[in-house]
């Protein structure tokens, strides 16, 4: 089964800076509970990984939802994802709502919500296997 990828433009606000960035939303059925957001811009390269359900639920919420370092909410035309970095700084990513919605729809077409499964034994084996330097 192939993954889902949606590319879009977005805006990042960190402290007083605003930057236009390229964003790749990625979903891999081998990691069915997570989404990956790759952000590329002149001043930043970063990747955020968080729960697919958080993104899907955030698209229906006009107030921020989520616990921990990622929160998601919808506005009339944008999806806002805030991420608290290890430094404690908050970065706000704004994306077109319809692109984010299409990404969630495509990921749920591949693996419907509630039908995710994870091979825990294979996951633990991959984590504990010796790696070559």
Question: Could you list some keywords that capture this structure?
Answer:
23% helix, 7 strands, seven-stranded antiparallel beta sheet, cell cycle, Transcriptional Co-activator pc4, Chain A, 133 residues, alpha+beta
Q: How does this model look, in words?
A:
This protein is of the alpha+beta class and 133 residues long. The protein has one domain (4-113): Transcriptional Co-activator pc4, Chain A, CATH 2.30.31. 23% of the residues lie in helices and 43% in strands. The chain has helices at 52-58, 97-110, 120-128, and strands at residues 4-14, 17-27, 34-41, 44-51, 70-74, 78-84, 90-96. The model has no long low-confidence stretch (mean pLDDT 87). Belongs to the SsgA family.
Mean pLDDT across all amino acids: 87
Number of domains: 1
Most strands sheet = 7 strands, antiparallel
Q: Helical region count?
A: 3
What overall geometry do the principal axes of the alpha carbons give?
globular
Q: What radius of gyration results from the CA coordinates?
A: 16 Å
Order of helices and strands: EEEEHEEEHH
